[in-house]
Amino acid sequence: MTDTLTDQTDVHARGREALLHEPAGGDPGKLTLVKAKGSLVWDDTGKEYIDCTAQAWSNNLGANDPRVIEAAIEQTRQITHARPTFHTPALLELAELLVSIAPAGLDRVGFTLHGSMAVEMALKLALRNRPDAKHIAVLHDSYHGRSIATMAASWPHPGNVFGALQPQFLRLPRPDGYRPRAGLNVDQDTELTLGLVRDVLTKGTEGPVAALVYEPIQGNGGHNEFTPRWHQGIREICDEFGIMLIIDEVQTGLGRTGEMWASDFYRIDPDLLVFGKGVGGGFPLAGVLAKQRFAKFLAGDDQLTFGQFPVSIAAGLAAVKAIIDDDLCSRAAAHGRYATERLLEMQTRHPLLGDVRSPGLMVSIELVRNRLTKEPATAEAHEVFELAQERGVIFGESRYGGLGNLIKIKPPLDINREQLAKALDVLDDVLTEVESVVDGAGSVPS
Ligand SMILES: Cc1ncc(COP(=O)(O)O)c(C=O)c1O
Questions:
Q1: Which of 369-378 are b and which e, b meaning 16 or more Cβ less than 10 Å from the residue's Cβ?
Q2: 144 Cα to the center of ligand 1, angstroms
Q3: Mean pLDDT of the 372-379 span
Q4: pLDDT category, 445, cuts 50, 70, 90?
């Protein structure tokens, strides 16, 4: 028994060392997960955790939902692989279902397996429709993935060595809800930034801009929410300059904000919408919804061998049906209201808690050393993350360059109230603990 365990430990140690994505010597804090159910995960020591990350905000429907697992098993028994030159029944049914729940006018759909590849699909479709274009625009602090192109579309990657292969994107400024430009409030910052965007598009380009792609709430770039006026102003600018508006809902889609799409929540009218993460019910799946008036792809433009992987598609069909049947949008909205109320109350007691952000179960808090200067409390945020994990709650940590002081609370949308309450209780406790030991923790302003 002991020998078997030792053997397994050795194999795991050698495996860790072999992994290309691990730092040399391994990451001692990294858990090895063996099981998941709903909002819970278990590690290889048998310890249970409430997973407030939904595994990269992807398990909108809790982990291992029996409807998804059954659909995937059944599909696996029938046919696991069909290249993109063939259809499967689930593919056609999921296409029809997604188009029926998409924001108005988005009645074409394409599938792939990763959010990054879906963003690339959207970029290709934009260029297919605007072959004379010289640019594709993105916003400062955006995050669109880690393929070569989407990495370039995202906030500058620290120590980027991939430049020789990366396209140049036109980077446009964005307003900031928490740190508006000096002397301005959020509304004024939004108006000013819309003007700056207009200036860049008028004077700062080499020719037509095919598309502007942005996240309705910037996720990895710091949980930056925009005002409805920003979305409306950007739509007007896109219409004026003949630019396709691509909304990246890889993170915000499928109920996360309390509506099926953030585009519904903010009344955005995208020309293309990118989805991913939650759509697959824990299986890799992503894609693009597009307006009918755009030309489709030509043969060979966007075909990947496993791009329409039948098992993911069948799982996705079951997951989307379950999200609708269980009304997870309403549950996300209600849980989000509860979490936000509790966090705002905590903010009156915890000087570290600089800002509380939502909507729905897209919840984050920003920790600051001083609420007036808003100096990021990055080390403290990491401490909160580690202490919470020790106590059985996994929060999302922001590794965003320059800030890194966000704690993200984005569990599955069907988390139960007791689990959510427990996670917030643990957060409350660890904030108290970190504030009691950290020198210079801020003071609550009058
Ligand atoms: C907004 C957004 N777009 C694209 C991606 C990339 O998705 P994937 O990691 O599945 O390639 C992510 C992933 O975090 C994301 O948050």
A1: bbbeebebbb
A2: 5
A3: 95
A4: very low
DSSP state of 164: G
Question: What residue's CA is closest to ligand 1, atom 16?
Answer: 251
Give the residues surrounding ligand 1 with Cβ less than 6 Å away.
56, 114-116, 119, 143-145, 215, 219-220, 248, 250-251, 276, 286
Comparing CA positions, the residue from 146, 110, 135, 436 lying closest to residue 304 is: 110
Indicate the pTM of the whole model.
Answer: 0.96
- pLDDT for 442 beyond 60: no
For ligand 1, the distance from its centroid to the CA atom of residue 234, given in whole angstroms, is 22
Whether residue 4 has pLDDT greater than 90: no
User: What is the 119 CA–ligand 1 centroid distance (Å)?
Assistant: 8
Where are the strands (E) in 54-164, listed by range?
106-112, 135-139
- 395 CA from centroid of ligand 1 (Å): 18
Cα(117) to centroid of ligand 1, in Å? 9
Check: CB of residue 363 under 8 Å from CB of residue 339. yes
Query: Which residue among 58, 114, 144, 279 has the greatest number of ligand 1 atoms within 8 angstroms of its CB, and so is best to mutate?
Result: 144
CA distance 339 to 10: 42
Does the pLDDT at position 403 exceed 80? no
Structural domains in the chain?
19-51+327-437 (3.90.1150.10), 66-325 (3.40.640.10)
* Residue-wise pLDDT tens digits, 166-206: 999 999 999 999 999 999 999 999 999 999 999 999 999 99
Phi, psi values for residue 101, rounded to 5°: -105, 0
How large is the average pLDDT for residues 142-146?
97
